[in-house]
Amino acid sequence: MTLRFPFTVRSPLPPVFASSLHRCLSIPSPSSSSSPTPLPSSDRRPPLFLRPPTFAASRSDLHDFRRWAESLALAAGPRISASDGGPDAALLRREIAWLVEDATVAAASESGVGEELRLRVELEELYRLWRARIEERRPFQYIVGCEHWRDLVLVVKEGVLIPRPETEMVVDLVAEVEGFEKGLWADLGTGSGAIAVGIGRMLQEGGRVFATDLSPVALEVARLNVERYELKDKIELRRGSWFEPLRDVEGKLTGLVSNPPYIPSSHVPGLQAEVGQHEPKLALDGGEEGMDHLLHLCEGSASALKSGGFFAFETNGDEQSEFIADLMSIKFGNFFHNIKLIPDFAGIQRFVTGFRR
Amino acid sequence: MAGFFFLFVKRSFSNPPRFLLSPKIPILCSSTSSLASSSQTLARAFKNVVGGGISGFPRVSVPRWLSSQSAAVPDLKTADGLTVDAIAAKNWPILGESESDWRSHAAAIAQSIQLIKKRMQWRKLIVRLDQMSAALNKPDLWDDPVSAGRISREHGELLSKMKEVNGYEQELLEHIDLMKLAREENDEELEWESMKALVSMRRNAKEKELEALLSGDHDSCSCFIEVQAGAGGTESMDWAAMVMNMYKSWAQRRGFVVTIVEEMPGEIAGIKRATIKVDGDYAFGYAKAEVGVHRLVRISPFDSGKRRHTSFAAVAVIPILGDGSTRYQIKESDLRIERFRASGAGGQHVNTTESAVRIVHIPTGISATCQNERSQHSNKASAMAVLQSRLDQLEMARQAQLNAEHTRSLTDISWGNQIRTYVLHPYRMVKDLRTNYEVSDPESVLGGDLDGFILNFLSYLLDKDEANV
Lengths: 357, 469
Ligand SMILES: C[S@@+](CC[C@H](N)C(=O)[O-])C[C@H]1O[C@@H](n2cnc3c(N)ncnc32)[C@H](O)[C@@H]1O
Prior knowledge:
The complex is a heterodimer of chains A (357) and B (469).
Chain A lengths: L14 H7 L33 E4 H26 L4 H15 L3 H4 L5 E4 L3 H13 L4 H5 L1 E4 L2 E4 L12 H8 L8 E5 L5 H7 L7 E6 L2 H13 L6 E5 L13 E6 L14 H4 L15 H13 E10 L3 H14 L4 E8 L5 E8 L1
Parallel strand pairs in A: 5-6, 5-8, 6-7, 8-9
Antiparallel strand pairs in A: 1-2, 3-4, 9-11, 10-11
Chain B lengths: L1 H13 L3 H4 L10 H19 L33 H6 L12 H19 L1 H16 L7 H40 L3 H26 L8 E8 L4 H20 L3 E9 L5 E9 L3 H5 L4 E8 L8 E13 L14 E5 L17 E5 L4 E5 L5 H29 L13 E6 L5 E4 L5 E2 L2 H5 L4 H18 L1
Parallel strand pairs in B: 4-9
Antiparallel strand pairs in B: 1-3, 1-5, 2-3, 4-5, 6-7, 7-8, 9-10, 10-11
The structure holds S-adenosylmethionine.
Family (chain B): Belongs to the prokaryotic/mitochondrial release factor family.
Protein name (chain B): Prokaryotic-type class I peptide chain release factors domain-containing protein
InterPro entries (chain B): PCRF, Pep_chain_release_fac_I, Pep_chain_release_fac_I_sf, PrfB
């Protein structure tokens, strides 16, 4: 049995995508309508913590904002967490502290300014942002435009999945692979580029990550993160469906990691509002049983990896992981060995790893 | 020092100082050994000046220290017959180093020398040296070359140890002779130089004395100091805290590094019990002087009736043997890392800013949680740091326990074993009941000025040791 890349069509990048790869979030571009999902205007701006502190407010103004925001959080928290497992009041209050942290200039440089505080957004904007958090359930990370992940601060925005804490472990799994530092790696469906940047930072001379995604918005955000961590010479971003953009390195990869969309389609409507109403379906919906993309990845891995190559997939947990592990060790047992299930910190079998024979 | 000898040499070169020739000075002719020693001092002096070479100077021939002479214990005296012991016995008041009183310097040096001799168990050494000498004189000595070698080696070592001390004694006596001579002759220059030499010797002798005081088995180790409040509730707990603070300040003053290992606070004030780790050379050697019960008499700040109260605190000191490393080595496989407050499917299903992590160290059951950081990774790192420090503390406590076998731990210290009383009212005084050393300024003592008490106790220990010989 020979395994082939499971795709039929291979088209060169349309010019519109190529140009979007070079666009930077911080430069508002009116011609951005070529992007598939139109973005609210606020998303054209850099994340809060990177904006210049051009606004001012008094300490008591900020205090008033906090009081107001907390009262909103206290009132809405219980309802939100009860309805779909969203954030409770305690969590919302911590988010307020972080919002203020990102929106104001660090305490050390504050001193001397006295009652005046320097802000990175207008005070009214701060009110609007928090109202959207509570009333629209807009994810906190989209509001501040970043997600703290591992020891990174990654830029995120609407249109790209907010990296999850569980996924941090994928980088640790890679770090355990012997000789990973100089290897060729692929992060399929890179989204914000989280995993790729995490790996890229550990690589040495000769090491490289190919980070792919189908979504131009994701690639745009990933590019920002790659640039922010000065990894342009380590991480190559490519657009396309799964293995499609990796033909030139077929059979040469040291390792393959992916956190593909794995939520069963039927679950998508019932998702927590922050996820279901705000994050891109393309990043979540895994088809009827949630495993469409995972299966696709399993089938393609044998020809993508070199002998001895490593793979790590994140799954929806327990059942999916077992299914994938079985598939890799039984159906594709000729190609793979040392298949393992790895639990996340909540005890859910979250990852499947193994090696190409 | 060099200045003094330079002057000295210059004189001897062009015009030898009179005392070198004068028959009035018996030091040069009383015995070979004292001449030898005196000449050695001179030779050293020449060296000091010309950096090792003495060519060009009238060379004083230095007779060899004759090993057959059991008079390795020479009878060292000044011109007017004073020995070092006699000087010490005169009890001349010992003033500060800056005071130009030669008697005070001489008394201080004599005291140091006596102490060093005590520490060496001088009397025992003399007996041993005589035995060795007798053995060496046996005609059949070399029939057993191995034992002969051992005997002659021990004899040589003993001799050189003792010679060094005799050298100090000789030096002191010479300085005194010079000083007296200078006064007799109204030679101010010589007097001033002799004074300088005495001061410098005094400093030197003090250092040697300290080395001698701190030559116990574990003296050079770091240590734990434990303080426990006696009966009497808040009153004693407050006192225990004062005692602990006294040690913290004392240790910091001495340049030791202080870490709090554990602290059980009192309900209202003070501590029930606390342990600190004191890191540094000779921490144990000094601190061991503090073992026992410390008693406080004062008007209680907790008593609205303003009555006098007596409180007690017990102190134990435990040496940290071995490499003193109290870093607990955590094995990855001994850890269980849990998502704190996690529920549901997780992963892509959930968006949350909650990423708290709890790390459990399975063998000890000790755990740490962190939820303040914005990423799970950082929460994990913080929790790990907390866990590490908790395990380090456990390790310190374990080592303290282990080491306690070598010392008296708090439980062995009977509350009857009072070593010091601190009186704040009606008069002010701190008195050590073992040495009778006392100070009328309790604040400075409680502020960590303990060295007087400690050094006095250490030399008292030597006296006791010697008495037991
Ligand atoms: C769950 S997200 C993971 C994003 C990122 N790796 C992370 O862990 O945060 C899945 C990603 O797969 C991308 N994706 C979906 N379908 C794809 C396809 N056919 N080919 C490549 N990427 C795809 C989505 O755009 C999305 O960025």
